[in-house]
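REVIEWER CHECKLIST
Item 1: Sequence provided? yes
Item 2: Single chain? yes
Item 3: Sequence as submitted:
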Amino acid sequence: MRAPTILRSLPTMLQLRPRAPAAVSPLPEKTRFDRELTAELDTLRSQGEIGLAQLLDAAITTQKIASVSLVNVSYKDCADRGAIDKYLEDNVEILDACNYFVDKMEHINKYVDSLRVVVHLVDNNALAATRALELLESCQSMEKRCKAMENRGSCLKKMLRQKLCHETDKLSEVMCGSKAMALMCCRFLELGLSFDPKRGLPVMKMSQPTSSSWLRLLEELAKQAEKKKVQRRRCWSSLLTAELQQTVAAARDLKEQMKGKREKEMKYAADRLKISIRELEHGLEIVEERVKNLYKSLIDVRMTLLGILSQPTTVIRSD
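Item 4: Structure as written out by the authors:
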């Protein structure tokens, strides 16, 4: 069967009538905040193994970028006031989380101090086994108290369930970036400082579509972390999780060897615990310093936003 005349002649007719070019929406101009945070996340992603120190450094840099980006930004209406108030409310929760992590590390340091006394007793006084065992029992009680602290972190869990998104204006983007990077660190700090080896890794939630380059990169990093955790590869392993769990395991092994009165194995277990303690202490020192610096940088962003709220209402925005 032949096609009707009108259909057969359609291609010729279309060739004789040039199509009007389709309208193409211009890509939104990237802000200074977008460019600088994207570069920071690109650097982070290019590293072979990412640990808490690198994550915290990136979060601290982000707060500095945010503070600089906010210097010439003024809020324009009540909608902006509401967004700033919400950020400031979340900012307080994140600051509380930083204090919680510092307290948690202080508890872990006390745990480590007790273990160091145990090692000293084992190395220098074979007759002090009873005292050493008592200290190891108290260390297990400290582990339980730290786990109880983790279970009480309801405010942090609520924050981690928030979806990360921002409006098209610069003020909203800067506040979102500041909060997103701080929350990402909170997620990994919660995992890295946990005495529970089965504690899950909270998943980053992004609103779709993610228009900003930095938000897309942040989503990729979160997915990469979850994938590597499932596959148990080395990448993302330097979150203090390994050091903490190795110390806990070494302490329990030493306790078992002491109960069995196996002197040779006891000496080996004590040496292993000594090494684990040293590695854990080093990691805690690095992370604690950076958590305190993150706290200070979040305060700086907070003060800058409070300064914006004190300005007269204006529609002027600057990159």
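Item 5: Key structural point noted by reviewer: The two ends are 65 Å apart (CA to CA).
Item 6: Recommendation: ____
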